[in-house]
Amino acid sequence: MTGGGFTSRHLAVVGLGLMGGSLALALRSHAQHITGVDPDAESRRIAVERGIVDEATEDLRSGVHDADCVLICAPVRTIISLIRGRIGSYLRANTLLIDIGSTKEDICDAMGTLPIGVGAIGGHPMTGKESSGLLSSDGSIYRARPFVLCPTRRTTPATRLRARALVEALDAVPIEMNAHQHDRVVAAISHLPYLLSTALVATVAQEGQNDDSVWKLAAGGFRDMSRLAAQDLSMMGDILSTNTQAVATLLALFRMQLAMIEARLLSQDDGALVDMLRPARDARLNWSQQYDGKRTTP
Amino acid sequence: MTGGGFTSRHLAVVGLGLMGGSLALALRSHAQHITGVDPDAESRRIAVERGIVDEATEDLRSGVHDADCVLICAPVRTIISLIRGRIGSYLRANTLLIDIGSTKEDICDAMGTLPIGVGAIGGHPMTGKESSGLLSSDGSIYRARPFVLCPTRRTTPATRLRARALVEALDAVPIEMNAHQHDRVVAAISHLPYLLSTALVATVAQEGQNDDSVWKLAAGGFRDMSRLAAQDLSMMGDILSTNTQAVATLLALFRMQLAMIEARLLSQDDGALVDMLRPARDARLNWSQQYDGKRTTP
């Protein structure tokens, strides 16, 4: 099923940030030549100087036209406009095209409009780092992490096999699912948590206008629950606005759960309240043991 | 203002769990004699064997009658029933009585009914440990952490001074506020976050019934946001049910914040959405730098 080890005669990495740099480093020994494409001269200079890529250009056409594998490593809306732009006409037949965007349905739809002959598949490596940018690049961030692959209308059996081989070359765990399902899952485990974190901080900040002791006394629980609110906004804006429907659905489901807990709280029946809280506690403990404990904490 | 170093001729610690054990350890060199009171024989045996206390008894009267300082270290409802029970009649005049309950208004109201002559003040050390129980006791967990003191009708100026001295003996930071204010603050920074964490896990678990890939793909963001949901339920039931009004108020304020964010999301105006998210991001970053960064992470 894995299609053998991944190799590339010429790998192009479009977008030299944390993800692009990290993918280039991780695939260094699998590619004969790596070209980086980025509009920012400083990023190109650093990428070449540090040996992350062999050469770098700001010109998309010259960067990708000879490649047999192209990785698009940019924010979601940039990925979509690249795919809906001219990149399709620059690519050789049978080139493998993968992106790393955090939402997949809009991107995979766009991939479906690429010329026949391009082997395009959506990708989402479920990993990251506190620090962003090319200088934080680290080829090991994919290790033992899920890497979702979402087939498109331009995904052939060969595309699928080669993409899986690429993911395995990263020591990541390939998980195939359709783009719609992916977006619903990440709405639940990533976008909803982000919005809750942000709304929590906004609530505490509102309290803080009357009483700054909220800030003085906030500690570990608040620290955990507010960390996501500090995420980079330019990326989050793209992510949320390309997943509005799934996020709105999850918000509605969340409100139902919160309302049920609140009803028990207000009814002043301690036993019933604890009975309502217990399944979530069990589910969290079960997740820690069954899923989270099995992989390396990034 | 600090009233000099804290000393006790005879310190009684009622409740030998993580908090009771840790307080006894932290005050070891400040007390000539420490008696532990606990209904559990095993806890008493361990506390004496490890030198956490000098002696231990299950009898509340004999444990506290000679003490000049009594610390009640139990879940909130247990603290309230101890105070509303006979402990007042067992105490010597001028004994300092402090509790460590996570909500303060009900406890401080109860303290107000104690016999005149008992110097009672509510306490809440804002600290903890992942692991609970006497065996996890650690005298250093109070260091540089806020320790809230809430005056009651039985708090004299001498009570206040001695309580502050005790808090400083723990290397903790005394913060005085009234019990009502305390309960509102912890509703915002602790109880609301807990309920959000629980409702989030319940939502993800509901999704998981149809698609177990939510569990496979959940990672760092979900880990942070779900950690509180795994807290000990017996304590949380007590805490929430003694702070219902403040928690319900904060839930209502939170819903408003979340609804405002959702409205921007649904309006498909990316710029407006990001403008709505930005103040929370700034507030979180500011809290990290101005407050959280200044103390040791427990």
Strand neighbour order, sheet with most strands of chain A: 3-2-1-4-5-6-7-8
Q: From N to C, what is the helix and strand string of chain A?
A: EHEHEHEHHEHEEHEHHHHHH
Instruction: Characterize the main sheet of chain A.
Output: 8 strands, mixed
Which term fits the overall shape of chain A? elongated
Tell me the greatest interface. A-B, 93 and 92 residues
What are the segments of chain A in which pLDDT stays under 50 over at least 5 consecutive residues?
A: none
> What multimeric state do the chains show?
homodimer
Number of alpha- plus pi-helical segments of chain A: 13
- Radius of gyration computed on alpha carbons of chain A: 22 Å
| Annotated CATH homologous superfamily of the largest domain in chain A | NAD(P)-binding Rossmann-like Domain
**Which structural class do you get from the secondary structure elements of chain A?**
alpha/beta
Amino- and carboxy-terminal Cα gap of chain A: 28 Å
The CATH architecture designation of the largest domain in chain A is: 3-Layer(aba) Sandwich
Could you explain the architecture of this structure?
Two copies of one chain form a homodimer. With 298 residues, chain A is α/β, with parallel strands linked by helices. Chain A has two domains: 11-177, Rossmann fold, CATH 3.40.50; 182-266, Orthogonal Bundle (6-phosphogluconate dehydrogenase C-terminal fold), CATH 1.10.3660.10. In chain A, 51% of the residues lie in helices and 12% in strands. Chain A contains 13 helices and eight strands. Chain A has helices spanning 18-26, 41-49, 60-64, 76-84, 87-90, 105-111, 157-169, 179-210, 213-217, 220-226, 233-241, 244-266, 270-290; strands spanning 11-14, 34-37, 55-57, 69-72, 96-99, 119-125, 146-151, 173-176. In chain A, strands 3-2-1-4-5-6-7-8 form an eight-stranded mixed sheet, sandwiched between helices. In chain A, strand 7 (146-151), helix 7 (157-169) and strand 8 (173-176) form a beta-alpha-beta unit. In chain A, helix 4 (76-84) runs parallel beside helix 6 (105-111) and helix 8 crosses helix 12 (244-266). The longest helix of chain A is centred in the middle third of the chain and has 32 residues, at 179-210. Chain A is elongated, with a radius of gyration of 22 Å. The mean pLDDT of chain A is 94. The interface between A and B is large, with 93 and 92 residues.
